[in-house]
Specification:
By secondary structure, the chain is mainly β. The chain has 5 helices and 30 strands. The protein has 2 domains: about 240 residues, Thrombin, subunit H, CATH 2.40.10.10; about 240 residues, Trypsin-like serine proteases (Thrombin, subunit H). The longest helix has 8 residues.
Length: about 500
């Protein structure tokens, strides 16, 4: 069995070397420069030595915690490994610090286009065996919003951190080290390493700084946003050569909730929006479900609504590609083992047969629970609209959105159930933002700074205690002022009855 020992860090720092473990291999961090003449504008750097020879079947890398269950690292770190041991909350890895948390992972995802020879698409994900609870020493790093994707970060100051070697022949550091370096253009970096694609980003090393053996997979951060994953550098950490990183412009963990608006000018009648809300009164939304979907490619978070003792209504894009689901009912604080919580498995997921992933239409699905649940004060069924309400467009009505999703576009998911009220707008108003919004969808305006965000997909839109919508999509990155769009439940009553046997 091959094992990768990962050190993940953010506010959380995690490392890979338990006390007494000193003979770990380093995964390859280096390439041979295409020139022996270092351009003067890159400046000198003091990092030297040679790469450690291959030894054993375990190796050290770094990583960044990007969700309670995911660590972002390099593809060359997870490549060939069967499992990983992740250390979070560490500073001095030789000490048994009270802040340290050790989490195992048996699910490692390597980018499908990773090319070991060219070291391209060098990015991977570690799916932790169980979620971690964030605290002052363990927290999640922000990923770049989609609006920053074209940003090349040229000349920006960025921080590299890790427990790797402090020189090419030196020892790894027992304490977490950090250094700041300036981001180069890819054309500058290509003068050293040949063709450096746009999926990579380089730092100059001016002032004798950079990454070295053991830092692979670790973070490159600017303005508290993760923009790079340590990939490679010159063989042996020679003085003056750049460090290269896989660019961090990616969103993970959540199934797609977003589309690109067709306009940059927000109509005034929709108003501004800050994606946040208030904590729900514990167990006041007893039909709310917290769902973790599992597939060969990974796991993701969605919401849902209990509509019968054996059925949860959610979004088609949530069930799409999944093999099974773990459904949490009766929860308020998902980080706690509350006595009210019930965990139910499902191996039967129903996606609407006409679901269109590109147009995001017919975005509705059903989870069939492996066994019926018993109703309690904390777990109950939400009412579906009577057939007589089918023509109702609910225009201008106040409706409630709820979920454990992100409270900001770049923020963390909420540990407690959040709720917010918003006004329903007409489909013609919503179409001015997203193009053609069909009658099978319903939108809320977001006026007052409210709406759905990552992780809320599949969750409920309710008015007068009746489920009228299923969270489907919104503007990329939870942009301020844009509507949230839902699948309209009244359009799917026949489909729901046909697939569940619920008489409506």
């Amino acid at each position: 069995m091959k094992v990768v020992i990962l050190c993940s860090f953010v506010v959380a720092a995690a490392w890979a070397l338990p006390m007494g473990e000193t003979e770990l291999e380093f995964k390859r961090l280096y390439v041979d420069p295409t020139t022996d003449t270092l351009p003067q504008d890159l400046g000198p750097r003091i990092t030297n030595g040679r790469e450690a020879p291959p030894a054993g079947n375990r190796w050290l890398c770094g990583g960044s915690l990007i969700s309670p269950t995911h660590v972002l690292t390099a593809a060359h770190c997870v490549d060939g490994a069967d499992s990983a041991t992740v250390y979070l909350g560490a500073h001095d890895i030789t000490q048994a610090e009270a802040s340290q948390l050790v989490v195992q992972s048996r699910r490692l995802i390597r980018h499908e286009d990773y090319d070991e020879g060219r070291i391209t698409d060098d990015i991977g994900i570690i799916v932790l065996d169980h979620p971690v609870v964030v605290n002052e020493q363990i927290n999640i790093v922000a990923l770049p919003p989609s609006g920053q994707v074209p940003d090349d970060y040229e000349d920006q100051d960025a921080r590299i951190s890790g427990w790797g070697r402090v020189s090419g022949e030196g020892s790894t550091s027992p304490v977490l080290l950090e250094v700041n370096s300036t981001v180069l253009t890819n054309s500058q970096c290509s003068r050293i390493y040949g063709n450096v694609p746009n999926t990579q980003i380089c730092t100059s090393g001016v002032g004798g700084v950079g990454s070295c053996s053991g830092d692979s997979g670790g973070p490159l951060v600017t303005d508290n946003v993760l923009i790079g994953v340590v990939s490679y550098g010159a063989r042996g950490c020679p003085a003056g050569y750049p460090s290269a990183f896989s660019r961090g412009e990616t969103e993970l963990e959540f199934k797609r909730l977003y589309v690109d608006p067709i306009t940059d000018t927000l109509p005034q009648d929709l108003g501004p929006r800050i994606i946040n809300g208030r904590e729900a009164v514990p167990h006041s939304i007893p039909y709310q479900a917290y769902i973790i979907f599992t597939a060969p490619a990974g796991r993701w978070l969605c919401g849902g609504s209990l509509i019968s003792p054996t059925h949860v209504l959610t979004a088609a894009h949530c069930v799409d590609g999944a093999d099974s689901a773990t459904v949490y009912l009766g929860a308020h604080d998902i980080t706690q083992a509350e006595a009210s919580q019930l965990v139910v498995q499902s191996r039967r997921l129903i996606r609407h047969e006409d679901y269109n992933d590109d147009k995001i239409t017919d975005d509705i699905g059903i989870i069939v629970l492996d066994h019926p649940v018993v109703m309690t004060e904390q777990i109950n069924i939400v009412a579906l609209p009577p057939s007589g309400q089918v023509p109702n467009d609910y225009e201008d009505q106040d409706a409630r959105i709820s979920g454990w999703g992100r409270v900001l576009g770049l923020g963390d998911t909420s540990p407690v159930l959040m709720e917010v009220n918003s006004t329903i707008i007409t489909n013609s108003q919503c179409s001015r933002i997203y193009g053609d919004v069909p009658n099978t969808q319903i939108c809320t305006s977001g006026v007052g700074g409210v709406g759905a965000c990552n992780g809320d997909s599949g969750g409920p839109l309710v008015t007068d205690n009746v489920l009228i919508g299923v969270v489907s999509y919104g503007a990329a990155g939870c942009l301020a002022g844009y509507p949230s769009a839902f699948s309209r439940v009244t359009s799917y009553l026949d489909w729901i009855e046909r697939n569940t046997g619920i008489k409506l």
